[in-house]
Amino acid sequence: MSCAAPRLGRDFFARGTVAVARALLGQHLVRVEPCDRRTVGRVVETEAYLGPEDRAAHTFNYRKTERTAAMWMAPGTAYVFLTYGMHHCLNVSTVSADVPQAVLLRALEPVEGMAQMHARRPKSKRLTDLCSGPAKLTQALDIDRGFDRADLTTCPTLFFERARKRGYPESQIAATPRVGVDYAGDWAARPLRFCLRGSPHVSRPWPD
DNA sequence: CCTCTGATCTTCT
DNA sequence: GAAGATCAGAGGG
């Protein structure tokens, strides 16, 4: 009998971006490598980017470019960009192809393939250093721009697995302002970052 | 624990 | 030509 967890499909991503950002908490991000080696992390921190209104979003004011094209693709499409000249960040598009919004994956709790993750991030001293940041998790799971525009509902090497039937109750989720978007005016203060309360794997703690 | 700084290069102005 | 949806390491408290 097979008991592989089902992957998250189009319907999961085809709804409000904040709903997706919350619902992704607790789900598994799976990276399959040659010889079926898997590196897997449980999502513990996300951020919602609500273009074209959102000043912090790369799609603010309908800025559609070669780089941001993935955000105008089907819900469940990966948007991977390079930041600070050296770090990759992974997003998943949401809502529908004509609404340029996405969820940024900011932190994972390592679940499977920790040795492989550590091999790619040898400087990590603790388990909580492996995937506790948007660019740490892309290093740990070996995700780069080769995955930009990949359909994560069908991609054989990168996808989400349903690890939990229902989303976490509101009381288990901490909502805070997003990280590193001070330039975004009123949008900077909006509580669009979501963390699994109590997880030691988040990119940074939040105020009580 | 904290704050500060250098690294590094694509993207858009 | 400037500015990043960041990270790691150094130095101080």
Describe, in short, the structure shown:
By secondary structure, the chain is an alpha+beta fold. The chain has four helices and eight strands, in the order H-H-E-E-E-E-E-H-H-E-E-E.
Please give the structural blueprint.
Elements: H1 10-13, H2 17-23, E1 28-33, E2 37-50, E3 78-83, E4 87-93, E5 101-112, H3 114-120, H4 134-140, E6 158-161, E7 173-176, E8 193-196
The structure holds a DNA duplex (13 and 13 nucleotides).
Structure write-up:
It is a single chain. This protein has 208 residues and is α+β, with helices and mostly antiparallel strands. 12% of the residues lie in helices and 27% in strands. It contains 4 helices and 8 strands. The chain has helices spanning 10-13, 17-23, 114-120, 134-140, and strands at 28-33, 37-50, 78-83, 87-93, 101-112, 158-161, 173-176, 193-196. Strands 1, 2, 3, 4, 5, 6, 7 and 8 form an 8-stranded antiparallel sheet that branches. A hairpin with a 3-residue loop joins strand 3 (78-83) and strand 4. It binds a DNA duplex (13 and 13 nucleotides) through residues 47, 49, 56-58, 63, 65-67, 81-87, 89, 91, 104, 106, 123, 133-136, 139, 178-181, 183-184, 203.
